[in-house]
Every structure is written in C-alpha cells, then in structure tokens.
Amino acid sequence: MTRIQQVLFALEGPYMGHPYFVSGNALFNAIAPRVNDETRRRLRVSHGVFVPEEYGEYPDAHSMPGYAGKLGGSLPTVDAYEDLFLYRDPAHRWMLDSRPRDAQNTHDVQTHGGRVAYADTSWFGRPEEMRNTRRSVSWYVHCYVHVDGAGDTVPLSDAVLDGIQVGAARNYGFGELSVADTQVVELADLDYARLEAAQRDGEPCLIELVTPFVTASEYPGADDQDVPWWWKVGDDEVRRRDTRVVDDGKVYVVDTIDHGQVVPYTGSEPVRTAVNGVRRVGTHSKYGFGEFRVRPAGERRVPGRADAGGDGA
Predict the structure, then answer these.
(1) Is residue 303, in this structure, part of any structural domain at all?
(2) What is the DSSP string of 95-158?
(3) What domain count does the chain have?
C-alpha cells in the first residue's frame, strides 16, 4: 500500500483564493521548486482543506468517538481508515453543537487595494459580562502528500514545507503557510473493520467525492474520463463544474464532476477501492483531483438526518 504524510499548515496572513480549499495544483507548485527533480516527478499533493481551531468531538465513525477538546490546530492520531477524513469535510461536523459552526466556517473578509482576501484569524463577539469581549479563531490548511511508487521520499522535511505561499498576490506576502504539525500514516496499518464487515455481509457502500473528479482537460496529453463503471449513476445524474490547473505559467480548463456528491458503489472490493480513493484516481490525481471516501450505506454522513434521497446522504 502507500505511506502518506499528513501536513497541517497554519495560515500566517491574508489569503486570496478559493475560500474552502487550496487546490493540490497550487500546493504542488509551491512545494515543487524546493525539492529535487526525482521527488518533483513522483510527488502527489492533495487539495488543502481550511480548518478552524475550535472545540469539538470525534464523530461516531472515528476510532475514538466522543469529546476531543480543541481540534484543528494539531493532527490527531490516525488508527482507522475513517480517521483520515476528520479534517477533509469542509463542513467540519466535528465542531461542538455549542459553537456557531456556520459562522466559523466562513472566513473574515478583508479588502486590499480593491481586491478581496480572507483573513488568517476570525473574531467573534462575546457577552458583555465575559472578561474578554471577543475571541479569536485561527485558520489552518490540512493536506497530505505521497509519492508514486516505492521509496523514502516521504516524509518531506519541515524545511521544505515551511513558508510556502499559495493563492494570489504572493509577491506582496499573501498566502504564507507555516508548518503546524505533520505525521506519517501507513495505509496498510489502518483498521478497515467497517468496510471489511460491509464486504463480508454484502452491505452496499457509497462513494463520497472529497475532491472533484476530472472528466476532460485542456492539459496536453491528458486523458478524458467517463463516469467510473463502479459508480451506480448516469452521466446526467451528476453535478459538474469547470475549474483550472496551472503548469509553468499556462492555464488549462478542466471539466469535473463536482466534489461533495455521494453515489452508490457497485464494486466488490470496498477496502481496495478505499485505499485507491486516498491515493486518488483519474486525470490530474497528482494535483489533488479524484479523492474520495468509501462508506457503508448504513453510515450517515450527517447524524440524525432522515432518509430523503438525493446526493447528500
């Protein structure tokens, strides 16, 4: 299987870019000049998900469900497959119900020279009787890297990762990231008990798209992709979105099946498929596209939600 390195960056200043994630393409381009040619050729970088530092609890599917104290500012131990995705859901359902999740999942907006940027810290008012009239919530970026093939390229050193910049206006100091935490995870050592039980019992599974799946790209030599045969869904039943990838200063349009959708899984090896989903599949998987999670159909992504059909199970 594969060794991956989880990386948690602290956002050190305003950021100009997508408000929910930093693309793997942007992170790859930031890291690539800092490594040798061999590492650059083999390196694979996921999308980075913005994570607030806040009090929370591990979800039921986690290997240690229950109250977790403060999350977001460090990387919890990963013992089971489900633990990998704690910070990969932009809704951050781990946040305590007592916290204003909708507000805290929205960056404070700043304006610099007429351009919109997102702040590295969000501020919230507190009742007048409290000692401090406001409190701060810091923002982090969670991603992971691995290499194609065997070797000891991973883990990357903090010296390689620390201080990279992403987003626009980098020449003005925007988008700087510092390393807050890293850890190496051996996918072969994880507990896949839930998926193994589903396979053994014949329970159906679902595919949840964590990042967009590429179907077509203007990038030279890129392969077009059909909807995978192991998704029980038609071409006209998925939500699509155009995006961009940048290589050597050139911009290429990419057609994708948008992330966040949930589709039935029709394959027969959910554990093997789950591992492939972490490593990502399809065109531009090197740049974070094609990441997905496999869930037993009886496991609710949103606890307490009634059966309602659609793509948000």
Answers:
(1) no
(2) B-TTS-HHHHTSPPEEEETTEEEE-SEEEEE--TTSSSSEEEEEEEEEEEEEESSSSS-PSPPH
(3) 2
